[in-house]
């Protein structure tokens, strides 16, 4: 299983914002820090704001910051929101599908258990768990390690 770019960029953005202690950070700064597309990051920031993870401040001195404490942002929640479709195989999506063994297949149950286990692990961590007491990460994300 591989997370989509939206999830990846969302988690990186949240981690960077958590290391900036409420200071505003621009999309341009985040894109530059991670060497990623600013246009793609704008879409991710929009979704993070819509889901209540970040606050956006418009204007000349605007930027982004966390809308909640990093201790309250659960990694599993971010992934669920940003992934949208966690259907590992066709039969997860419901509907007719094209698989002829769906009615008798045990693989579906196994894959559901695996997905639940994956998300359960992510639910055990917050953005704070990924960033707190991690000075090397803070230095990298602030640009001090350059």
What labels would you give this structure?
146 residues; 5% strand; two-stranded antiparallel ribbon
Brief overview:
The protein has 146 residues and is mostly helical. It is 51% helix and 5% strand.
Task: Please render the helix and strand layout as text.
Layout: H1 5-18, H2 27-34, H3 38-50, E1 54-57, E2 63-66, H4 75-83, H5 107-123, H6 127-131, H7 135-142
Antiparallel strand pairs: 1-2
Structural commentary:
This protein has a two-stranded antiparallel sheet. By secondary structure, the chain is mainly α. The protein has seven helices and two strands. The protein has one domain (5-142): Arc Repressor Mutant, subunit A (Orthogonal Bundle), CATH 1.10.10. The longest helix has 17 residues, at 107-123. It has helices at residues 5-18, 27-34, 38-50, 75-83, 107-123, 127-131, 135-142, and strands at residues 54-57, 63-66.
Strand order within the widest sheet? 1-2
CATH topology: Arc Repressor Mutant, subunit A
Sheet with most strands: 2 strands, antiparallel
Helix-strand sequence: HHHEEHHHH
- Corresponding CATH superfamily: Winged helix-like DNA-binding domain superfamily/Winged helix DNA-binding domain
